[in-house]
Specification:
The chain is α+β, with helices and mostly antiparallel strands and about 325 residues long. It has 2 domains: about 1-35 and about 170-300, no CATH class; about 55-165 and about 305-329, no CATH class. The protein is built from 4 helices and 17 strands. Strands 7, 8, 11, 12, 13, 14 and 15 form a 7-stranded antiparallel beta sheet that branches. It has a 4-stranded antiparallel beta sheet with strand order 1-2-3-4, with helices on both faces. It is elongated. About 35% of the residues are buried.
Length: about 325
C-alpha cells in the first residue's frame, strides 16, 4: 500500500510541474537529474538520517508574540497550577515518574475544549536517562490524563508531545518570498526530491518556477481533494498570490497541507535536522490537520533558548528546592 501511494505521489508531483512549468525539469525517476537540484540548507540532507543529537534539550514558555494569536477555545475556565502543585500531584498519583535527585519542572496550558484549560508539565530529574524528561498532562479536574516516563521514551515521542508555539514575528516577505507561521499544532508538509516527504515548522519559502521552495530544497505541498486525493506541490502563476484565513491561496485555490506527528496518516517519522523530519504517510491527504497560518510572519525557531524538542533548554531552568510539603494538596 505504501509503495503504491509513494508511486502515485511521485507521479502527481511530475505531472503538476510539467503542467504548470515546462521549463522546470524535475524528473524524480532519474537519479542524475534529481541530483541537479541544489540542496540549499546548511544542514546537508542525505539518504542516511543523522544520528540523534540530544545535546540541547527543551523549552515551553513563550513571551508575548508580535502577532496576536487567537485562542481556540471560548471557555472562561482556566486551569492554573504551580510547580509545587504539579510535583505533589505526580508524587501522589503517578509514582513511576522519576522525581529523585535534581528536579526541574516547567508547565503550560493546553486547550481542553469545552471544559477549560488543562496543564502540560515537563519534568526533568537526574534519575532520567541523559537528555530525556517526563511529560504529564493534567485535566481541569486534577486528573492525570496521560503520562510519559522518561525511562521509557524516545526522542521522536518527546518531539511529538512537546511541540509548542514559539514567538511569531511579523516579517514581510521580499520579492519572490513567502513567509508563513503556523498558529497551533502541526508542521508544513513538504516534498524533497529524491528524499520523499518531510515535516517542518520552517515557514520561509521562495517562489521558484511556480513552486514554493524552502531552505532545504523541498517544495510546499497542498491538500488532496476528491479529484486528486494525494495532493500535489503548490503551484502558483506568480509570486503575488496571497493566503486567506483558511490557509488557501486566493487565486489558485490551493490549500497548504499541514500534518501533525500524531495524525493517523503519519505512520513513522524520524529526526533529520533542526526542525526537519522525514515522514512516511499512508492514506490520502484530504483530511490534513488545519491550523491557522499567518502570512508575512515567521515563528522564532532559532531562539537560542529553544531546545531540539521544541521546549526550553533545561540549563536555564532552576532546580526545585526541597523539602517540599505536599500535606495539604
Amino acid at each position: 500500500m505504501y509503495r503504491k501511494f509513494s508511486f502515485l505521489i511521485i507521479l502527481t508531483f511530475i505531472l503538476a510541474i510539467l503542467w504548470r512549468q515546462k521549463t522546470l525539469q524535475l524528473n524524480f525517476l532519474s537519479k542524475s537529474q534529481a541530483e541537479s537540484i541544489e540542496v540549499k540548507s546548511s544542514h546537508k540532507i542525505s539518504n542516511h538520517l543523522n544520528t540523534l543529537n540530544l545535546s540541547s534539550s527543551p523549552r515551553y514558555t513563550l513571551e508575548q508574540s508580535a502577532v496576536q494569536i487567537e485562542p481556540t477555545t471560548s471557555s472562561p475556565n482556566l486551569k492554573t497550577m504551580s510547580d509545587r502543585d504539579v510535583y505533589c500531584l505526580i508524587e501522589k498519583t503517578t509514582p513511576y515518574i522519576p522525581l529523585g535527585g535534581e528536579v526541574k519542572i516547567v508547565h503550560g496550558e493546553y486547550n481542553e475544549y469545552p471544559n477549560g484549560l488543562g496543564v502540560y508539565a515537563w519534568i526533568y530529574s537526574s534519575q532520567c536517562p541523559t537528555e530525556t524528561y517526563s511529560i504529564v498532562r493534567i485535566d481541569s479536574k486534577n486528573k492525570v490524563e496521560t503520562a510519559i516516563d522518561c525511562k521509557n521514551t524516545s526522542f521522536e515521542e518527546l518531539v511529538a508531545e512537546s511541540g509548542l508555539q514559539w514567538n511569531v514575528d511579523e516579517v514581510m516577505g521580499l520579492a519572490g518570498q513567502y513567509n508563513f507561521a503556523i498558529s497551533g499544532p502541526g508542521q508544513f508538509l513538504v516534498y524533497c526530491p529524491n528524499l520523499g516527504f518531510h515535516l517542518s515548522r520552517e515557514g520561509q519559502f521562495h517562489f521558484s518556477n511556480g513552486l514554493l521552495e524552502d531552505s532545504h530544497g523541498c517544495f510546499l505541498w497542498q491538500n488532496g481533494d476528491n479529484i486528486n486525493p494525494q495532493g500535489g506541490p503548490i503551484t502558483l502563476e506568480n509570486d503575488s498570490d496571497e493566503l486567506n484565513n483558511e490557509g488557501c491561496f486566493k487565486n489558485s485555490g490551493q490549500c497548504v497541507a499541514i500534518l501533525d506527528f500524531k495524525d493517523q496518516l503519519v505512520k513513522q517519522f524520524q529526526y533529520v535536522g533542526p526542525d526537519l523530519f522525514s515522514v512516511e504517510i499512508d492514506g490520502d491527504l484530504k483530511q490534513t490537520t488545519r491550523s491557522r497560518i499567518f502570512s508575512n510572519a515567521l515563528e522564532r525557531l532559532d531562539d537560542p533558548e529553544r531546545g531540539s524538542t521544541g521546549i526550553q533548554k533545561w540549563e536555564s531552568i532552576e532546580n526545585m528546592k526541597f523539602p517540599i510539603n505536599c500535606g495539604n494538596i
